[in-house]
Write a structure and sequence with these properties.
- With 225 residues, the protein is an alpha+beta fold.
- Helices cover 20% and strands 25% of the residues.
- It has helices at residues 2-15, 67-76, 119-126, 166-178, and strands at residues 54-56, 79-81, 93-95, 102-104, 107-111, 128-135, 146-153, 180-184, 187-196, 217-224.
- The strands form two sheets. The protein has an eight-stranded mixed sheet with strand order 2-5-6-7-1-10-9-8, sandwiched between helices. The protein has a two-stranded antiparallel sheet with strand order 3-4.
- The chain is globular and about 40 Å long.
- It starts with a helix and ends with a strand.
- Residues 1-20 form the signal peptide.
Length: 225
Amino acid sequence: MHAVRSLGLALLAAASCVSAGPLAKRAAAYYDPNDNGGSMLTNAGDGLGEPLNVIISGLSSSDVLTYDGAINYARAIGFSTECLGIHIGNPQSANLGDGNGWVNQTVEIREDYGDASLGTCLESLIGGNHFRIFVQNGTEADSGALFLAVSYEEDVSDGHDIETNGYDIGRDDLVSWALGTTSYGGVTYSTTAENVTGLLSAGSAGINHDISIDGIVTLLTVTIQ
């Protein structure tokens, strides 16, 4: 987990660069990974993947697109880091078509049930919503956008399998919690959403657990007030 987090820190630091060079101002909310050899499915093993069904736009406030900023925003919308910093299971990877190839998730975030300190321990027991973050910041497609693989999982007794229709449910719940004005740690956010089609195919082909999806990706634009 430490290695994954360190890699994520480096990637998000690059994504949030505000120097006077070409990274200072981005011109795109995101780039379609499919256009440059990437995929809108993660690599979950056995040739299957999980949908990257939410994108935090690269046109969001730059502080949201940093590691610490993404964590703070997650806490503002009902999520937090994993219980006591412990990650169980292998990380997934994604190729966002930005020239970085397949890169492990930066971090995994879980529903906190109203307690940002220990609430994710409850999620680990009884299940709930969670997501993995991947950063699009390679030299071939540097939007700085955060691609999220969101899903609703069952409890520990069911091995944390994804609930029936859990990818669409997880996406819709996250979006409903994020919309409008939220705040955490003295930072206030305004979030708008737009549904995008054509990035993912509807159905269950190639989807982990053979769960069908509706093919919708929701684009969130997050502005710090």
